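I hope you will forgive my troubling you with a question about protein structure. The matter concerns a single protein, recorded as an amino acid sequence and a row of backbone structure tokens. Please examine both parts with care and let me know of anything in them that strikes you as inconsistent. Thank you for your consideration; the sequence and its tokens are set out here:
***
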Amino acid sequence: MDFDDDAELDSSQVDDRRGGGRGGLALGGGAVGLVGLLIALFLGIDPTGGGDGGSPAGPAVSGTQDVRADCRSGADADERTDCRVVGVVNSVQDYWASHFRAEHRAYEPAKTVLFTSRTDSACGAADSDVGPFYCPGDKKVYLDVDFFRELTSRFAARGGPFAQAYVVAHEYGHHVQDLLGTMDKVGDDRRGAGSASVKLELQADCYAGVWAHHAASTPDERTGRPLLDQVTAADIDDALDAAAAVGDDRIQQGAQGRVDPDTWTHGSSAQRERWFTTGYRSGEPASCSTFG
């Protein structure tokens, strides 16, 4: 994965809140994400954000990082994780804006919120233990970049820049589902291997693969040139490895020593790999027919 060094990043698409926040969890308000509720339950976290979830988490930690000042070019995206997030957000939204335009639809951009430990969202207070998620209440993606370390240390993924890109693209897949009304299909069908929740997550994986197919060819909305110079076979392997690492079966096996498909919310490792591959090979959102 290589960004055009001279490409100009649009950091206005990212809200950098690192350095402080409030307590609680964002799972009570319909948030959806890469690993979400499953991890919360296995960690013993109250998924409703009950108790004193709205109380302050303590004094904010002073920070000097700011993507608006530090993330200006593709060269920055190649060097720094937070700048890479900015670049991927830009690229993903460039693709979906162009696709919606071709379908005679209006794409509504969504910001990514970078935070440390905890912050507030329209879905409730967000906690980094739950992993990255999309909140339909405010149409924003929430991400503590420390999750990328968790991806390798807790979930045993290889990691790498394109594994990180997969995480971001998956969350924007949820934003697309929100815009298209697909989230309305879930209702109370939130658990089990055949549940609407699993279908929603697998479709977001597929949408991430569709973006990966177009990542090095989609022109920047402002300059007309792609932000990414190339996506390699090794990059795709890293994305597939990350998708497998956060499969329900693998997380359950590691956390409790057994697999219970009746409690799945995101799909198995094999399913997540398969649907990402489906989107990547076809390059067509219509191929992501997990509800079909």
The chain has one domain: 2-287. The first strand starts at residue 2 and ends at 3. Residues 81-102 form the longest helix (22 residues). The beta strands are 2-3, 14-16, 32-33, 111-114, 118-121, 124-127, 133-135, 140-143, 228-230.
